[in-house]
Design brief:
Blueprint lengths: L1 H12 L19 H9 L7 H11 L4 E4 L6 H12 L9 E4 L3 H14 L8 E4 L5 H9 L4 E4 L1 H10 L9 E4 L2 H6 L3 H9 L6 E6 L4 H10 L4 E4 L2 H5 L3 E7 L5 H12 L4 E4 L3 H13 L4 E4 L5 H13 L4 E4 L1 H4 L9 E4 L6 H8 L9 E7 L3 H12 L4 E2 L5 H22 L3 H13 L4 H13 L19 H6 L7 E3 L2 E3 L6 H22 L1
Parallel strand pairs: 1-6, 1-7, 2-4, 2-5, 3-4, 5-6, 8-13, 8-14, 9-11, 9-12, 10-11, 12-13
Antiparallel strand pairs: 15-16
Helix pairs in contact: 3-4, 4-5, 7-9, 12-18
Length: 517
């Protein structure tokens, strides 16, 4: 009930969200009833833009090239047609999905399993490095129709002949550009070369560099190109805002936003691993359930952190862009850009993790100094609007905290027997000179704490020139000014006097050089 109250509170705050235009309904496509049942159980009603355009084409058996960012519903876009093509009675490998990271492979496999829940006999297996390969070999031997894996581990199984490609009907490359950036190009081409001639291929990539295009030309047949623009991704269901904050106030501002909006599950992005570790410690010390994720963690540590985030034991995940690539967790209420991303593409990847499946989401970006120009650049390139907002005031924070405590108190009153405590309170009031209201206010102060101080918005002034007086005070030359026809400088000399002095100095230097020879 506590989580429901928090979600209701967030939904009230998100009343300003712009309504999203309804997309194509799943039942309007030629999708099997068993899959539709699973989709409905997952809470999805209408397709995302990439699903609406990709699913009908893939159901026809044609190849596609899908250009779309993280968080656009790509897994269901290829997962639904893939499940529909698989024959449950044939206990052999019929489909392969290649992913750049272990995390993405695990998450994609889980999503496909959910979609295949009512398709009896279909087995989905993730294969990736860092896990005992003999365990994967045993699972493959039992009969698996769909494998989701990283290119390196899929190659290992192909060399061992534990993955056989003779019955493959469909292969998918997910996050293809990222796989190439990680050096998997040769592995991918080796895998594709071993696929049957008669098979379907879908390739999804956020960008379309030349190496990706070469792969599509060589291994796809009359592929249909489908592009979902950043505007379609970011504007529809995500309320974007930025706050101008002084660098020293960023942590306090972040906590202020967490306290006010109270997201049940949120992602915080930093540009460095060091900042991830520092923030995780600070937030934990302040009582938040937060964990950090970056490339220096071992696979076991990463698995523990992600499991805690998925199950709700950890409500705040702090990550770098590289570590977060492949995180695909549903139900993220808000994304916080503690640091403005260095690459505009990262901004789209970051905020694409909230506002999914038509649900409301928010992104918050803390801006310092000249980072405001980066915000304007993101708006221009992504065709979106990021609104400047003011931080919640101290009174706003106190009001929200009190509301949360009242909700918790009501829940306790409904579920617990408080008679003995009531008698103890009444006795304390009779024995001391205070009222029930005084006591209630003191208890509230113990829970809420002192009212936070006001955080001043940082004032930016770019390109302003200092006054002559200011420069004179600093001991430097002032900006030149004109009085009549003569130019004057801060040291009191006229322009003509200054030029004469400079000529004399030059003559002395030349004379000294001649004497030296």
């Amino acid at each position: 009930m506590k989580e429901e109250l928090r979600r209701e509170n967030l939904e009230e705050i998100l009343t300003e969200e712009e309504s999203k235009e309804a997309g194509m309904r799943y039942q309007d496509a030629d999708i099997d009833s068993d899959i539709l049942r699973a989709v409905k159980e997952m809470g999805f009603e209408t397709m995302s833009p990439i699903q609406e355009r990709a699913i009908p084409v893939l159901l026809e058996g044609r190849d596609i090239i899908g250009q779309a960012q993280t968080g656009t519903g790509k897994t269901a876009a290829f997962g639904i047609p893939m499940i529909q093509r698989v024959e449950p009675s044939l206990r052999r490998l019929q489909a392969i999905v290649l992913c750049p990271t272990r995390e993405l492979a695990i998450q994609a496999a889980e999503e496909i399993r959910k979609l295949a829940k009512y398709k009896q006999g279909i087995k989905v297996l993730p294969v990736y490095g860092g896990q005992d390969i003999t365990r994967q070999i045993r699972s493959l031997a039992q009969g698996v129709q769909i494998v989701v894996g990283t290119p390196g581990r899929v190659m290992d199984h192909m060399r061992r002949h534990t993955i056989k490609t003779g019955e493959i009907k469909m292969i998918v490359l997910d996050e293809a550009d990222e796989m190439l950036n990680m050096g998997f190009r040769e592995d991918i081409e080796t895998i594709l070369a071993d696929m049957p001639v008669e098979r379907q291929m879908a390739l999804f990539s956020a960008t379309m560099p030349e190496p990706i295009l070469r792969i599509t030309h060589e291994y796809q047949t009359d592929a249909e190109y489908i592009r979902v623009t950043p505007k379609e991704i970011t504007v529809a269901a995500i309320k974007q805002a930025y706050y101008r904050i002084g660098k020293k106030d960023k942590m306090e501002a972040l906590c202020r936003l967490l306290d006010y909006y109270q997201p049940v599950r949120s992602l915080i992005f930093c540009n460095t691993k060091r900042m991830v570790d520092e923030m995780a410690e600070i937030l934990k010390d302040r009582g938040y359930q937060a964990e950090g994720l970056h490339g220096d963690l071992s696979q076991h540590q990463r698995d523990m952190v992600m499991n805690a985030f998925r199950t709700g034991r950890c409500g705040i995940l702090i990550a770098t862009d590289v570590a977060a690539r492949g995180i695909d967790v549903n139900g993220v209420d808000a994304v916080f850009n503690y640091d403005v991303p260095e690459d505009i593409e990262y901004y789209v990847h970051r905020i694409g993790r909230t506002g999914r499946a038509g649900k409301a989401g928010r992104s918050f970006t803390l801006v310092c100094g000249r980072e405001i120009f980066k915000i304007h650049e993101i708006e221009r390139i992504c065709h979106t609007k990021i609104r400047e907002r003011k931080l919640p005031s101290p009174k706003d924070i106190t009001r929200v905290k009190c509301g949360k405590i009242f909700s918790e108190a009501v829940e306790i009153m409904e579920q617990k027997d408080l008679q003995n405590l009531k008698e103890a309170i009444l006795k304390a009031v009779e024995e001391n000179e205070f009222t029930l209201l005084d006591l209630a206010a003191a208890f509230m102060m113990m829970k809420v704490g002192e009212e936070p101080e006001e955080i001043r918005e940082e004032q930016f002034s770019f390109g302003k020139r200092r006054s002559p007086k200011h420069r004179e005070e600093k001991g430097g030359r002032s900006i030149k000014s004109r009085r009549g026809d003569e130019t004057h400088y801060g040291d009191g000399r006229r322009h003509s006097d200054r030029r004469k002095s400079e000529r004399k100095n030059a003559e002395r230097r030349n004379s000294a050089r001649k004497k030296s020879f």
